[in-house]
Write a structure and sequence with these properties.
This protein is of the alpha/beta class. It has twelve helices and twelve strands. The strands form three sheets. The protein has a seven-stranded mixed beta sheet, with helices on both faces. It is globular and about 60 Å long. Bound molecules: pyridoxal-5'-phosphate (PLP). The site of pyridoxal-5'-phosphate has 13 residues, from loops.
Amino acid sequence: MNELTLAARVNRLGTESAFDVLMRANQMAAEGHDVINLGIGQPDAKPPKTAIEAARKALRDGSHGYTDPPGLPILREAVAADLHRRLGVDVAPDRVFITPGAKPVMFFAMLLFGESGVEILYPDPGFPIYRSMIDFSGAAATPYRLEESRGFSLDPESVLSRVTERTRLIILNSPSNPTGGVTARQDVDRLVEGLMEHPRVAILSDEIYDRIYFDERRPPSLLEYPGIRDRLIVLNGWSKTYAMTGWRLGYSVWPRQLADKVTRLAINCHSCVNNAAQMGGLAALEGPQGSVSAMVSEFASRRTRLVDRLNGLSLFSCPTPGGAFYVFPNITKTGLSGRTFQDRLLAEEGVALIDGTSFGAAGEGFVRISFALDQPHIDEGMDRIARFVSNL
Ligand code: PLP
C-alpha cells in the first residue's frame, strides 16, 4: 500500500481522552462487566420537554431546509434576549452565531488567530481541545497554571505575566472543566484591567458551564466588561445547561469586526446547524427554566456528598468545586500516577474516571471525577474507589 503524505499539522492534533476512556468503559460493559462511569462529561438530566416537542413539531411542520449559516435569526435574537435577561448585557443579535455544538467556536478562534510565530495562552489543567487546536494552528501553546491552593480559580497576575508582544489570544474557562473552579469577580476585574495595556490581545471566554454553579452569586461573564467588547469571543451553548449534548447546538458572541470571517468559516465548514435542533434550542431558551434549576440543585447535593466522601479517605484531598459537575481530587498520597490510577481502577474495580494529565501537565497527581451520574451509582463508585485505595 502506498504511504499517503499528510499535512504536518495533522500530527499535532491532540484528543480528548474522556472519549477514549468512555469507549473502553463501554467495551467492558459490552463484555458483561459491571462498569460505573465517573468519567462522563454530560449531565444525566433530560432536556426540557418543550425543546423536544418544538423539535418534533419543526420536523412535522417542514423545517427541513438549510438555515442562514450564522443561525436562524429568531434564535440569534432569543440568545441575545437571554443574555440580556440573565446578565443585563446588550448584545446585538448579529454578533451571535449558532454552531453545531460549542466546540467549533474553539476551532474557529484558533483558525482565525493561530499561526506560527504567535502565542496563545490557555489554562492548565484545562479542556484538552484548547491545547490540541492551538498546536494544530501552528501557534505556540503557552499554559498558565490553575493552582490547587486557590481552589483552581484563575490567578490574574499569573495570566498577565505571561502576555508578550507575540500573544494573540487568551483562553479563559469558568466554571472550569476539569476542576470545577470558578474565577472570582475581583479576579476577572483585575484581569480585564491588566488587559487594557494589551489592546491587541483577543479573549476567548468559554462559559459553557455558566448556569451550573453552587454559590449564591453567579460567576461573572466576560460579556459584562464593555471595554473588551471589540476583542471578546464568548462560547456557550445548550449541551450542559439543557442536557442536550447530542443535539450539537452551541452559540457564541463575536466582535462585530469578525462577523464576516465567522460567517465564512461556517459556510466553509457546516453550512448551518440542524434546522429542527435550532427550533428545539429556541424553545429551551424561551420556555420554563425549572429543569435547569432542578438539575443544578441535584448536582449541588451530589457535590457535597462526594467531596465529603473523598476527603474522608486519608489518601485523597479534594477542594470543593464552585461550578460545573466535576471534582478534581489530589491523589499523590496514593503513590500512583494519575494514569496508573485511572487504568488500574478501571481494570480492577470497573470504575472509570479521567487521569488529570489528560487536561495538561499540571494535572499530574490529580484525577477528574464527574458527578453527572445518579447518586446510587456515585455511591457505588465511591465504595469501589475506597476499596481500591485501601488495598494499595
Ligand atoms: N467547553 C468545555 C469546557 C467543555 O467541557 C465542553 C464539553 O465537554 C465543551 C466546551 C464542548 O461543548 P459542546 O459539546 O457543546 O461542543
